[in-house]
Structures are given as C-alpha cells and as structure tokens.
Amino acid sequence: YSVAAGEWNGKPVVGAEHFMLYERIPLKEYAKLADRFNPIKFDAETWVRSAQDAGMEYLVITAKHHEGFAMYDSPSSDYNIVKRTPYKRDPMKALSEACHKYGLRFGFYYSLGRDWADPDVPTKWPTKGGRSNTWDFPDEDAKVLSRYFNRKVKPQVKELLTQYGTVDIMWFDTPELISHAESVELKEMIREIQPACIINSRIGNGQGDFDIAEQNLTTQNDAKPWEACMTMSRHWGYFRHETGYKSPEVLLRDLITVVSRGGNFLLDIGPSPEGEFPPESVARLR
To answer: How far is CA 228 from CA 218, 225, 262, 264, in A?
Structure first.
C-alpha cells in the first residue's frame, strides 16, 4: 500500500492503509502494486540506528498486513516480496541481522484473522463479512477459517520464527474469528520454537502476555504488562501528501504519559515505497 501512497486511480483513497477493503479492489488488480514495489533505498542499519539513537529498545516490523502480502521470503505463499516484486530480496533478513548486531530486540507483526488474499477468512465485525474480501470471495458461509489457519497462518508464523534467528516479540493483529483452540495451538508452537518470545494479546482468547492500547495512552487492565501503539502522523502506512504529523512535544508527552502508567510506547513509522523513513519521521526521532 505504500506504492499507492494514499491515491488510487488518481483520487485520494478511502480507508487509508485498508483501502483494498474500502474500495473493494479485486485481488488481481491490487496485486499489481507489487510490480512497482522496489524499495531500493532500504538500509536496515540506518533504520536500526535511527531507532536506537532515539532511545528505542525494540523494533516491530509488519511481516503480513490484512492485504495478505508477505514482506519476507515465505516458502508457503508465493504472494511475497521475493517472488512478486522487482526487489526480489528479503528485507526481514537484513533487518533482523541489524537488530541483533546493535542489540535491539526484534519482533514481527502478523495480521491473524484478516487476509484479503485468502478465500477462507470470514469476519463478523462490525457485521457479518464486514472485514472480509466479499467481492472476490462472496460466499461468507463457505469460508472455513481452520483451512486458512492450517494452510497459511501456522506455516508463515513458523517461517518467521525459524528463518531470522532470535525473535523477541510476536505482535498479532485482528484475531477476529480465531478459535480458543487455535490461539492455544499457535501460542504453544511459538513457545516450542522460541521459548523467550513474548506475545501480544491479539493472538486472541486471553492467550497473550501483554495488552495493547491502540491510539490510546492507557489500558483498562493495569495489572497486566501493556503497550500503547500510536501513529506519528494520521496514518499507519506511507501517505505521499501527509500533513498530520504530531509535534515532537506531543510525542514526548505521549511517551512520558505511557511510561508513567507502566506501559511501553510503540511508535509507528510508515516507510516510503523506496524503503526510507520519511524525513518528517526522522526529524521527530531525532
């Protein structure tokens, strides 16, 4: 979605980083964005040093968002950056190595209960099918989530845990209709492969190690370790004409507020399609 950079067919997108859903773009058409995705200016050590210089202690990178595209070399799905883009390299490998080199803890984000590239992912929020790909796969009742879970989720999470050395955090999103048994199975697999890896609450069904407050500076469960995930601008992903960056003062106040309440502060940056942090983000990190 960074390639679109907030525009589709010459108009501003509806739905920000979720515009494939809001604009109901067919998978075959949306996937053509990969043909132009070539982050040749990506430098893992620059990213990691920028984070570390800002005082950050860990880094979480999106391995797969709701669009279903793997930002790494996924043997179980050809819909990935190595197989489908002119870049043809695995940025996760370089990023994990840089984090290990400079002593930053390393984690993966993985969209769990939404995947608009897979035919077996039903949703029910805010209504039945409300976050599903119903234009390519219209029969919501025919979707069997366990098929997706076994065919894609388990293999890809295992890949992330075995291809990149130590993984400190598995940061899941949108559990949606994941069952209790599936959350437990996923947690047990993670513990078996990476015993020290911590897991956020969005693995679902009460199986996480820490809670998440999204775009919020506090959590309802003060007894449990927690993290605030916040955007630096108005969007999670890269928008070419972004005008809504928060001031350094606001970001610093947010940090102090979260830490004073016992939380961690996960501050989002949406890299450009060329693989660089936007200059506005770099200035605020500094």
So the answer is: 7, 11, 10, 6
